[in-house]
Amino acid sequence: MLFRQKSTTLLRAVFLAGGMVIAFSTSLSSAAHAQTALSPVDQGWVARVQDTMNAVTTMKGRFEQVAPDGQRTTGTVWLARPGRMRFEYDKPSPLLLVANDGKVVFRDTQLDQTTEIPLERTPLGLLLSEHVSLSGDVTVTSFQRQNGTLQISAVRTASPGEGTLIMLLSEQPLGLQGWTVIDAQGRQTRVALSDVKQGVKVSDSLFAFPREN
């Protein structure tokens, strides 16, 4: 039962947009208006980040995930835009996540349990869209640049109270390093990327949905 609770929390904390809620909605409401504080220079960087993300069609790398309780898991991630991604967790973790065909399927082989959610309801929807946009449906609430690292916080424009996604990028070369999700209790789940290779060949079979036993 404990593992079941942890795996369910893991899914919601990392991938469900509905769970990305900061503890105080007033803080989010204030943050939603912070976009006006972005300087022209900051706005220029945000535009560059958007262009860089749109230039990525395929990617392979390693990831390390840190849950709110400090539990660390690692694995390999593949991306093929638009719309496809695979998170394959290292053993002994029984977890696998595949995004394809407009949905995200999360498989726990130990529990023989599969969870399916619409891609558009997850942070992955932003990363995997045919055209990544950091305006319009998405509002950038803050931008920071220091020590060669960029940090962009974003919310859904129509419903900023649903949560915040914080993207971390390297400045030179400009590229995604990971992201942080904040849940309803203010707990943070971090995903860090490493050994990222872009433009690699990826097999369509990687994005086949996991089957139940």
TrEMBL record:
Signal sequence residues: 1-34
Alphabetical list of InterPro entries matching this protein: LolA/LolB/LppX (IPR029046), OM_lipoprot_carrier_LolA-like (IPR004564)
Record keyword Signal present: yes
Gene3D superfamilies per the UniProt record, alphabetical: Lipoprotein localisation LolA/LolB/LppX
SUPFAM superfamilies attached to this UniProt entry: Prokaryotic lipoproteins and lipoprotein localization factors
UniProt KW keywords: Lipoprotein, Signal
Keyword Ribosomal protein recorded: no
Domain of life of the native organism: Bacteria
Pfam family, one: LolA
Protein name: Outer-membrane lipoprotein carrier protein
